[in-house]
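Write out the 3D structure for:
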Amino acid sequence: MQEKIVEILIYLISELRKNVPMSDIDLTVLSQRGYSTTEISTAFNWLFEKISDGGTLITETAQSSPHSHRVLHDAERMIITADAYGYLIQLRQLGLISDMDIEVIIDRIMMSGYISVDSNEMKSIAATYLAESDDSFNSGSRTMLNSKDTIN
């Protein structure tokens, strides 16, 4: 379920970056893609918690950063597919993860003995990492809503 929440967050933040007000985001698109009301509500709740906690919702992107992009080492390229690395770059561009988060994720992959990491596996790894690094993803938090909970 965490992967689906991250996918919804990617959609929501992409819309916010297009200057679409949160109240005007078309949620029928998410429903048509097969996301449940609970998953959508959980993603919105995560965004609201970030805002209410005073955290930055969207961090500085690589476009406005004077820093260079990380290039995979040959050994890393043998394990991490281009699509998988592209997914990490997308998360970075949207501000969901930082440069340091990318380093940690890549280090975990290299130390864990993966033979190959494709985009689906990277989605799972990144969602798990985000859940570990953000208490609001944990099951004890109200971000993980019950099946009948919604945000109004």
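Helices lie at 2-17, 28-32, 37-52, 74-79, 82-94, 99-112, 119-133.
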